[in-house]
Specification:
470 residues; mainly alpha; Arc Repressor Mutant, subunit A; 3 domains; 3-stranded antiparallel sheet; flat
């Protein structure tokens, strides 16, 4: 279903109007009302908006609303607070943020909120709040749900779903932390005031990023404490076909999976995502560490530079001369101070005749074959790895097995470059402990469908599902 097949066309109009801040605050009043009450009368909501936003409503200019609704601005202003508050509620109704229904047996209207509006209101509220992110709670929640699954086998699917959701949230929060540090880092070169830079570093970055987020992430040991238990449980589930059957059956019974085949694919994908995330979580935290060190070093260096720079007339003149090649700067200076272009001739300005020399036939330059830089190779491999995750590699190799337990280079399908890449990645993946198969290399290469392939054989590990279960 397309997005605007569910959301009204004018839904976002209030967020682009001149009174957008007022509408957002009204939505937050609406959110608070429904957190404490199941049913809210229209008049009750209007009264709550008037009480909470009285000053803002009285100062608001509703000229845009006049064009859309046809109401007179003079009438709105003459009606005072109540009239404008009722207009706010009508605008929320017209744009689809709220809906109304009549109380049974009366003509009193009650306000209801559509599900899509609830999601957007909560998102707007979260973006407006300075909340402390709890990375460690996601790790513990993942561990707790998986640990309790053994004692409650009827809720294996819920345990896996909870673990996967908390892992996704953990990754999103870590990426958000990394991007926030990078945003502070990118603002450093454009800051020319030492006091502003110090305020941003110690009041903004230190309080909101370092003290509230980064320091707890580094000092609370939830990641190393629970990581190995989570990985052990997930790897055990990958090798337990009976447990996998239970999860798939529970998902089908709850109508989460449409059928067992698609359910098994989704289950394996969720387990692999959790395993891959916790396998590489230290590397992700190390990247955050490096970005934090880069920001701190760059901030200190820029502060030192600004404090040591000459801010007097001499220093400012030097900065202007650095950009003397810019004609706009020269023209601007000429309009305020006596600045002129100055040119002169000297002995080096005279024309010197070109002396022709005898052309010698030199030796050709030797051809050197240089190894590509390690950074280029690493970057390429990381790009390929992101495009072809472990779950996709495992799915390709396991499909090659069919109903057997062994497959070789001669029998692996090779229908294009994608199969060729998955085959090569499978030979690398087969050496990892978490892979559902092993790989053995033989001497020599073979030519197949235009590809030069090594002689290898893949062997399915015990307990791994066959191709029909993928």
């Amino acid at each position: 279903m397309q997005l605007f097949g569910k959301i009204p066309d004018r839904f976002f109009n209030i967020l682009t109007s001149s009174n957008k801040e007022l509408y957002v605050q009204a939505l937050f009043v609406l959110r608070q009302a429904f957190r404490t009450e199941l049913v809210i009368g229209r008049e009750t909501l209007t009264s709550m908006i008037m009480e909470s936003l009285e000053a803002d409503i009285l100062e608001a200019d509703f000229s845009e609303e006049e064009q859309e609704s046809g109401e007179s601005v003079r009438a709105l202003e003459g009606g005072g607070l109540s009239t404008k508050a009722h207009l706010l509620v009508r605008r929320l109704l017209q744009t689809g943020w709220v809906e109304t229904e009549y109380e049974r047996g009366t003509f009193d209207e009650n306000i209801t909120i559509p599900d899509y509006a609830i999601s957007v209101i909560n998102l707007l509220y979260d973006l407006s709040q300075e909340r402390v992110r709890e990375y460690n709670s996601y790790v513990y929640a993942t561990y707790a749900s998986l640990s309790n699954a053994a004692a409650n086998p009827d809720y294996l699917y819920q345990a896996l779903q909870t673990a996967w959701q908390n892992t996704v949230r953990l990754v999103d929060e870590l990426k958000s932390l990394f991007n926030n540090i990078r945003a502070y880092y990118r603002r450093i070169p454009g800051e020319a005031d030492v006091n502003a830079l110090l305020a941003e570093h110690f009041e903004e970055y230190k309080q909101k990023i370092f003290d509230a987020v980064y320091y707890p992430l580094k000092t609370i040991d939830s990641v190393p404490r629970f990581k190995h238990a989570i990985l052990s449980t997930m790897n055990g589930w990958l090798s337990d076909s009976e447990l996998q059957d239970q999860i798939v059956q529970q998902g089908v019974a709850r109508r989460v999976f449409s059928d067992e085949e698609s359910g098994r694919d989704e289950m394996i994908s969720m387990i692999n995502y959790i395993v891959d995330t916790y396998d590489g979580i230290e590397e992700m935290i190390s990247e955050i560490d490096r970005k934090h060190v880069e920001y701190t070093s760059a901030s200190v260096e820029h502060i030192r530079y600004l404090m040591n720079a000459d801010r007097g007339v001499k220093g400012k003149l030097i900065e202007l001369l650095k950009h003397a090649s810019d004609d706009r700067l020269t023209d601007e200076m000429a309009g305020h101070i006596d600045v002129f272009r100055h040119q002169f001739y000297d002995d080096r300005s005279l024309y010197a005749e070109v002396k022709r020399t005898k052309r010698n036939i030199g030796l050709p330059m030797p051809i050197r074959e240089e190894e590509p830089p390690a950074e280029m190779v690493t970057g390429f491999l990381e790009g390929v790895r992101n495009q072809f995750p472990n779950s996709r590699i495992d799915s390709f190799v396991l499909k090659c097995f069919g109903t057997g337990d062994t497959v070789s280079t001669m029998t692996v399908p090779m229908n294009g470059s994608e199969d060729f890449i998955l085959f090569l990645l499978g030979t690398v993946r087969g050496r990892e402990k978490s892979a559902p198969y092993t790989v053995a290399f033989s001497e020599g290469y073979i030519e197949r469908d235009g590809y030069h392939l090594p002689q290898v054989s893949f062997h399915r590990k015990e307990g791994t599902a066959d191709a029909s279960g993928l």
